[in-house]
Amino acid sequence: MAVPDKGVHGPLTGVRVVELAGIGPGPFAAMLLADLGADVVRVDRPGGPGLAIDPAHDVTNRNKRSVVVDLKTPGGVDRVLDLAARADVLVEGYRPGVAERLGVGPEACHARNPALVYGRMTGWGQEGPLAPRAGHDISYIALTGTLGMIGNAGEPPAVPANLVGDYAGGSLYLVVGVLAALHHARATGTGQVVDAAIVDGAAHLASMIHGMVAAGGWQDRRGANLLDGGCPFYGTYETADGEYMAVGALEQRFYDEFTELIGLRDLAPARRDLARWGELREAVAARFRTRTRAEWTALFEGTDACVAPVLSLREAPHHPHLAARGTFTDHGGITQPAPAPRFSATPTAVRGAPAQPGADTAEVARDWDVPGLLTRNPQPPEPAGGATTAAEGATTAEGRH
Predict the structure, then answer these.
(1) Sign of the CA dihedral 196, 198, 203, 207?
(2) Which of 87, 104, 91, 72 is nearest to 21 (CA)?
(3) CB contact set of 93 (below 8 Å; sequence gap of 6+)
(4) Strand pairing of 307-309 and 328-331?
(5) 200 φ, ψ to 5°?
(6) What is the pTM of this model?
(7) N or C end of the chain: which has fewer CB within 10 A?
(8) Is the dihedral of CA 118, 123, 124, 130 positive or negative?
(9) Could you tell me if 9 and 383 are in contact, meaning their C-beta atoms sit under 8 angstroms apart?
(10) Are 148 and 203 in contact (CB under 8 A)?
(11) Catalytic residue numbers?
(12) How far is 223 from 150, CA to CA, in rounded Å?
């Protein structure tokens, strides 16, 4: 069970968080809060969120506890409101209006707990023409211009998994907003709603790039700029064994060391001539194809040339530097990233395995003084013909944004 280890603390120890179960950025944001020491209670729905993943391997639910509540049964809403009344933060990822329709929206929760920070995680935001529409990470970063920046010139945009939208533009901004609002609530006694939209966060991530565009220092196309692969000394190159090395030798002194070690000192002046960047890139690529990734790694080891091997997800935990720092950890048979960042006075840790739906109901009922959680959920009436209504469908995984 995912009961926090009382001997391990984080800076959010004592903060109570209610997470209304969803998929993607909401659970990851709640995991970040849990990693920082918050007591996160995930309110799972009967049947789960609809993802084809074993809950025991869903590390975004680590360090949490779980209860199961059916919001469509008598008493279900009251159970969630009872939790909200005792919480500091609530996080939900429904489409706009769904939480209100279910009876657990901001107004209902603030009536029970005026100091509650109510965090809302969506793709399009709580308002705007697209607010009621479905979407996923790739949709949001496409519209903000972020996706269009990524990839090689003349090729389709490269999809950066769901890291840029869901997690960077979504989860991280929700957590920043929640912590800021929590600071305000503790100072004033007044809670508020945090509207974290992935489109807003993903656009905000490109603030520096927009400034460079305005200054004429960035071309609004892929593979033509200093940081998007257009620069021959900032990109990736294939090695003799079909692996890759990453080069980031931007500053002059790092570049000088790079060209010396790779054996292209005579071609180094091409750095300052954009017309020769193609020539320089071809020469660098040809050199990298002459040795294996391991050989290049050994050559650049201990230098300031800013060259690193491109590792796979399974290889990364075994890199000597990451192993020395404990960047990854093993818990419950799963190798996973350790909590980040690190704190000198309030260290964090993976305290519990992924929460199993409903496994912690009795303990949460006791710890949070919500005895109603122990009342068995009545079975909802079956819709005519066994079909799921449109209103019910709005709370499924497909309705998260």
Answers:
(1) positive
(2) 91
(3) 20, 22, 23, 24, 25, 26, 120, 121, 122, 400, 401
(4) unpaired
(5) -70, -45
(6) 0.90
(7) N
(8) negative
(9) no
(10) no
(11) 136, 166
(12) 8
Tokens of 329: 């950890």
pLDDT digits (tens, 9 = 90+) for 184-224: 999 999 999 999 999 999 999 999 999 999 999 999 999 99
8 A C-beta contact, residue 170 and residue 196? yes
CA–CA distance, 167 with 20 (Å, rounded to integer): 17
- Cβ-based neighbours of 293, under 8 Å, separated by 6 or more: 239, 241, 243, 244, 245, 309, 310
From the number of C-beta atoms within 10 Å of its C-beta (0-12, 13-18, 19+), residue 191 rates as buried
Q: Enter the tokens of residue 351.
A: 């305290």
Q: Is residue 166 within 8 Å of 137, Cβ to Cβ?
A: yes
Contacts of 9 (CB under 8 A, 6+ apart): 37, 346, 347
- Computed from CA positions of residues 49, 51, 55, 61, in that sequence, does the dihedral angle turn out positive or negative? negative
Q: Which two tokens stand for residue 148?
A: 């269009």
User: For 128, which DSSP code?
Assistant: S
Tens digits of residue pLDDT in 27-71: 999 999 999 999 999 999 997 765 667 889 999 999 999 999 999
Per-residue tokens: 97: 């209006």
A 10 A CB-CB count for 307 gives: 24
Closest CA to 250 of 221, 228, 275: 228
> What dihedral do alpha carbons 239, 243, 249, 255 form, nearest 10°?
-20
CA-CA distance, 23 to 135, in Å (whole number)? Answer: 12
Instruction: Tell me whether residue 54 is exposed, middle or buried, using C-beta atoms within 10 angstroms of its C-beta: 0 to 12, 13 to 18, 19 or more.
Output: exposed
Q: Report the candidate in 379, 244, 364 with the shortest Cα–Cα distance to residue 1.
A: 364
Model confidence at 384: pLDDT above 80: no
Q: Residue 399: how many CB atoms within 10 A of its CB?
A: 17
339-360: burial string, b at 16+ Cβ within 10 Å, e else: beeeeeeeebbbbbbbbbbbbb
Over residues 216-271, the pLDDT tens digits come to 999 999 999 999 999 999 999 999 999 999 999 999 999 999 999 999 999 999 99
Residue with tokens 């017309």: 275
Sole residue written with tokens 């869901």 = 166
Secondary structure element (H or E) that encloses residue 67, with its range:
strand 64-68
- How far apart, in whole angstroms, are the C-alpha atoms of residue 187 and residue 178? 14
Instruction: Name the amino acid, one letter, at 109.
Output: C
